[in-house]
Amino acid sequence: MRNPLFYAKILLFGEYGIIEDSKGLTIPYNTYKGSLKFDQKAEGKVSNESIDRFAEYLEKNFSEDFDISLLNEDIEKGMYFDSTIPQGYGVGSSGALVAAIYDRYALNKIDTSEGITKESIGKLKETFSKMESFFHGKSSGIDPLICYLNLPLLINSKTDISTVGLPEQKEGKGAIFLVNSGAPGETAPMVQIFFDKLKHEGFRKTLKEEFIKYNNACIDAFVKGDVNPLFANLKKLSTWAFLHFKPMIPQRLLDAWQYGIQTNSYYLKLCGSGGGGYILGFTKDYENAKLHLKDFDTEVIYKF
């Protein structure tokens, strides 16, 4: 059995907004990775049991699309997902597992080695959305999609997703970085909070007129490498999230979040659904930002 690696992902922009058709930008994060392996010992037991439950879901919903008998045989042999991707941190732990299961057991797997079209991306996203719903109750399918393709993706709408080139990293002072909130978060409760908020017309209005506007402007500026408009819109985006996404912001980070906005030394935003795990930071001076965030573990993911 060959063991292809599936890497973590980071949704730079578009958290929650992509549910309402905002733009999104997601990138692979190769620091963390996972692959399917066999082990009859205790090490893989929890993962093996989780895959067993997932297999039952696939058999019920995808019986003609996957080689369920082979999957069950492998589970019996102790197959598990050997992964360094932290769970509940917003970097695609379930997405990587879904991509790995699809890669090994899908009967009519979409082959991306010959090139990727919008049509193939759309089909993969639809399949991955249904598969990952097992873990989150509702999934856009974006996380497994990027874990499977291992390429940056620009999400223009639910039906318009394409690969995208990003500006080359530079050895400057600026950085995009992860901030560890210190505890994992759960996706489903956070998504439920968002859907409850969507029932209110005032929230839907500000989401559409402000959040989506700032989010899309950030993506346009980042892809072009325009730092000043990027940071102008990041401040608006971070401020909006502080006001409207407060339940999703880990309690430990509320003061640090507000401090960044007030001093312009960095701006924070959600990385995934929030509630815990990682938060994303953007700064023009990473060493200075680190001083203010000394109580938290940080790691750089992109330099400029």
From TrEMBL:
Domain of life: Bacteria
GO MF entry, a single one: mevalonate kinase activity
Domain GHMP kinase N-terminal residues, every copy: 76-148
Record carries keyword Nucleotide-binding: yes
InterPro entries on file: GHMP_kinase_C_sf (IPR036554), GHMP_kinase_N_dom (IPR006204), HddA/FKP (IPR001174), Ribosomal_Su5_D2-typ_SF (IPR020568), Ribsml_uS5_D2-typ_fold_subgr (IPR014721)
SUPFAM superfamilies cross-referenced by the UniProt entry: GHMP Kinase, C-terminal domain (SSF55060), Ribosomal protein S5 domain 2-like (SSF54211)
Gene3D superfamilies registered for this protein in UniProt: 3.30.230.10
The entry's keywords: ATP-binding, Kinase, Nucleotide-binding, Transferase
The enzyme's E.C. designation: 2.7.1.36
Name of the protein in its database record: Mevalonate kinase
Upper taxonomic lineage: Bacteria, Pseudomonadati, Bacteroidota, Flavobacteriia, Flavobacteriales
